[in-house]
Amino acid sequence: MGLAKELRQRRNIKAKEVIVPEWGDESGAFKLYCNPITCKDLAVLQKKHPDFLSNTSITAMVDLIIIKAVDADGKRLFSGMEDRDELMQEDTTVISEIATQMFTDIESQEDVEKN
Fold first, then answer.
1. Residue 17's closest CA among 77, 107, 101, 96?
2. What is the reported pTM?
């Protein structure tokens, strides 16, 4: 096992809970979970959306949600074009709020460039 893999496995990373009141029902707000956004995730998103970090579009936010949203057991919630098409019909404020909650631990492009 390489050192990078060993070091990564030492970290105890918990999935972040993302609360979506707009998707809730009588039992309460809908909850989804998001593991930390990785370098690989950013590479995938930036390949499709070159200005992802500096000028995030709503389409890029939808793709982020599709890539990262999981249930409490870690199972992906969304996949494929059908889910993407449905999410693209959602209110932009809902998509933006979900993406913002997922992104709270990510540095901005300016912060990355300062380091």
1. 101
2. 0.81
- Amino acid (one-letter) located at 114: K
* Average pLDDT value over all residues in the chain: 87
Which domains, and CATH codes, for the chain? 13-106 (3.30.2220.20)
Query: Which H, E and C letters describe the chain, residue by residue?
Result: CCHHHHHHHHCCCCCEEEEEEEEEECCEEEEEEECCCCHHHHHHHHHHCCCCCCCCCHHHHHHHHHHHEECCCCCECCCHHHHHHHHHCCCHHHHHHHHHHHHCCCCCHHHHHHC
> How far is residue 52's CA from residue 32's CA, in Å, rounded to a whole number?
22
What are the structure tokens assigned to 23, written together? 């998707």
CA distance 82 to 69: 15
Alpha-carbon distance of 96 to 91, in angstroms, equals 9
Does position 20 have pLDDT exceeding 60, yes or no?
Answer: yes
